[in-house]
Write a sequence for this structure.
């Protein structure tokens, strides 16, 4: 059925333009694996990822990214997969407060890791800005890294317990054993 609207009465939008989140902003994010895609050549795979900021000034803003998970054997692809797996390790360390990578339960968790384990994890991220080299799209925000527990910036982040083997996404939060901070971390304000 065709419906008529008087668009002169519609509230004007800002056009959906958001200012970029400043580079080096630190914020907690939830990682959502949107899908696994093949490269244009069809010879490797990458994850399409959506990050949603969960607290602070930019709460609910989304940042999109990708991460190579298989290589076609070229040096470039091999390096991209290496960068992705290092980032995944940082994200997991951040999400679960892991400082000691040699602890037996940590080793067991990391050995059995898969892309489903990334879906839904919340970690402390550093937001960056990627310059558009083509001039076609404009600059965009990216997640440039994860803040790991050995960083001073990590203080005050409420990490979760490492999921039990075969468990779904974590649900129970574990508090850090520390005195309550008088002033909030900069990312929490």
């Amino acid at each position: 059925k065709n419906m008529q609207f008087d668009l002169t009465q519609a509230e004007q939008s800002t056009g959906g333009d958001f200012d970029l989140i400043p580079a080096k902003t630190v914020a907690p994010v939830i990682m959502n694996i949107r899908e696994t895609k093949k490269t244009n050549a069809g010879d490797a795979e990458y994850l399409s990822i959506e990050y949603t900021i969960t607290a602070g000034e930019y709460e609910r803003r989304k940042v999109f990214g990708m991460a190579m998970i298989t290589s076609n054997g070229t040096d470039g692809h091999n390096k991209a997969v290496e960068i992705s797996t290092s980032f995944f390790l940082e994200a997991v360390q951040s999400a679960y407060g892991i400082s000691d990578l040699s602890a037996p339960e940590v080793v067991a968790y990391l050995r059995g890791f898969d892309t489903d384990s990334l879906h839904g994890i919340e970690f402390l991220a550093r937001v960056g800005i990627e310059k558009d080299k083509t001039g076609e799209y404009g600059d965009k925000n990216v997640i440039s890294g994860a803040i790991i527990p050995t960083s001073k910036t990590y203080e005050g982040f409420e990490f979760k317990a490492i999921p039990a083997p075969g468990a779904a996404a974590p649900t129970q939060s574990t508090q850090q054993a520390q005195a309550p901070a008088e002033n909030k971390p900069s990312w929490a304000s």
